[in-house]
Amino acid sequence: MRSNKNKIVIITGVRGGIGRATAKVFKEENWYVIGIDIKKKANFPFVDEFYSIDISKDEELKKFCVLISKKHNTLNAIINNAAIQIPKAITDLTIEDWDKTFVTNVKPVFLLAKLLYPLLRKGKASIVNISSVHAVATSKNISAYVASKGAVLALTRAMALEFAKDNIRVNTILPGAVDTSMLRAGLNRGHLRGNDLQEQIKELSQRIPLGRIGKAEEIARTISFLADNKRSSFTTGQAIVIDGGAIAKLSTE
Question: Which residues are catalytic?
Answer without folding.
Answer: 145
